[in-house]
Design goal:
Blueprint (H helix, E strand, L loop, with lengths): L1 H23 L5 H7 L3 H33 L3 H25 L4 H23 L1
Helix pairs in contact: 1-3, 1-5, 3-4, 4-5
Length: about 130
């Protein structure tokens, strides 16, 4: 289960790197506008917030990847702590998204399922 948790956390990190790209570099592209259900005017007004949010997602991914690497090379306690912090924050953010806007259930599921399952599998793997 430990390996499954690290793999799921790795998938979550990759998803969040992609979200970083969308929010920080492709924010006003037609495909991104459709993904987030925005007009070009809305996207332009939200650009500074999206840039900040994108980097937040990148930093969570980095924390998670560093944790995966450390856990994989034998620093299990420190690595797991970082994975719990990074992936746990990703899962918590997905909960905040769906609670604040129930119409965003699909987005919350896409960004929150892998980190939540990773955290659960990692916890089980550490307890066994």
């Amino acid at each position: 289960m430990l390996i499954a948790g690290l793999v799921l956390a790795g998938i979550a990190a990759l998803i969040h790197v992609y979200i970083f790209y969308l929010e920080s570099f492709a924010w006003t592209d037609r495909k991104t506008l459709a993904t987030f259900g925005m007009t070009a005017q809305q996207a332009e007004a939200m650009r500074p917030m999206a840039l900040n949010q994108g980097y937040y997602n990148l930093f969570l991914a980095i924390i998670t990847v560093v944790g995966i690497v450390l856990a994989s090379v034998g620093s299990t306690a420190v690595g797991a702590a970082l994975v719990f912090a990074g992936a746990g924050s990703m899962a918590a953010a997905a909960v905040v998204l769906v609670v604040s806007d129930p119409s965003k259930r699909s987005a919350a599921l896409k960004q929150g399922a892998a980190p939540l399952l990773g955290v659960i599998a990692l916890a089980v793997g550490l307890l066994v």
